[in-house]
Structures are given as C-alpha cells and as structure tokens.
Write a structure and sequence with these properties.
With 189 residues, the protein is of the alpha+beta class. It is 22% helix and 40% strand.
Length: 189
C-alpha cells in the first residue's frame, strides 16, 4: 500500500496570475531516496453547465494557447479570494456569456491533475438560465457564445469536438449523477 512521502523542502520559485510554481524535495517511503518535483499551486477552479428552458447548453468558444486551437467549452475560471465556488461559477457565467440563473446545483469537484496541481475544480449546473447582460470579457478574452442542444453533447464529446478534460468530466457528472434534473430535456424535442 502506498504511503505519503516525507516533504523535506518546498521552495517558491515563481508567481503568475493564476498559479505559483513550487519546487518540492520529498523522500520516497519505499526507496528512502529523495527526489525533486514541481508543484503548481492555484486557487480552486470552477466551471458551470448553463441550460436554458429550451434544453440548450450555453457554451463558449475561445482560443487556448496551450494547444493553439479554439475549443468548445462551458464557462469557468478561477475562484477569487472574495468568492466561494458557487459565487465564482455564477460570476464567470455572467462575465463570459451574459447569462445568469438562481437555480444552481453543485455537481461536486475533481482534482484537475493531482500529479502537479494542488487545487480542485468545482462543477455546477445552472438551470433556466436567461440573458441578463452583455458579456463582460477582460482584455485577454475573446469569447463566442453559442447554444448547443443538451442532447447533442454526448455526440460532440465522442466526435472530439469537446475535448477539454474538465468539461468532459463536468458532463460525465451531470449525466451520471444529476440525470434526474435534466430528464425533461431528453423527453421532449
């Protein structure tokens, strides 16, 4: 059975807007040797699946520098120090799309990549979303808002049109753990 490693040192290397880079030296309980690791420390992240009364998911398209491509995603972002995860998810929804809802459910959280990240990503479901304002993009964002029928999401994932891992996990949790909340969208239309 694996055991926790003994941390010898943690050295803060650099800070960026969304994360801090830390060098960690730790001793393996199995080999008793020390090894160096890099840990990326970040505030929690959030994403939110916004669904209209008509059964459409309000999604976004944006360019992602890591893969140098435009992706199809759900709204999301960083939990700022003034926010709790639900507030952050609703803030990101409104800023990125102009939509909002008072009917919000937690779908839990996941560890985005526990090998190198220390944080979690909380996922929320927002039902009966409505347009309440224009988008409030920051200067580094260029986001297109589109509506996709919820029924099409599994096909978009299978065809590789939705590839962002945290978005795929969000829909996985929605379909497996909260299907009772979305069943009406599959019965009609």
């Amino acid at each position: 059975m694996p055991e926790p490693w003994k941390i010898i040192s943690e050295i803060h290397e650099a800070s960026y807007k969304v994360l801090d880079v830390t060098s960690v030296k730790a001793i393996s309980p199995r080999t008793n040797k020390s090894y160096d690791f890099v840990v990326l420390k970040s505030n929690p992240w959030v994403n939110i699946i916004p669904i209209t009364n008509e059964g459409d998911v309000v999604m976004i398209r944006q360019y992602r520098h890591g893969i140098k491509e435009i992706t199809l995603e759900i709204p999301g972002g960083l939990v700022e120090s003034k926010d709790d995860p639900k507030q952050a998810a609703l803030r990101e929804l409104k800023e990125e799309t102009g939509y909002y809802s008072d009917e919000v459910y937690s779908l839990g959280y996941v560890h985005p990549n526990p090998a190198i990240f220390n944080n979690v990503c909380h996922t929320f479901l927002a039902l009966n979303v409505k347009t309440v304002s224009n988008q409030e993009q920051d200067e580094k964002e260029d986001i297109e808002v589109i509506k996709v029928p919820l029924k099409q999401v599994p096909t978009l994932i299978m065809e590789g049109k939705i590839t962002h891992a945290l978005v795929v996990v969000a829909f996985y949790r929605l379909f497996l753990e909260a299907s009772h909340l979305i069943k009406p969208f599959f019965l009609f239309g």
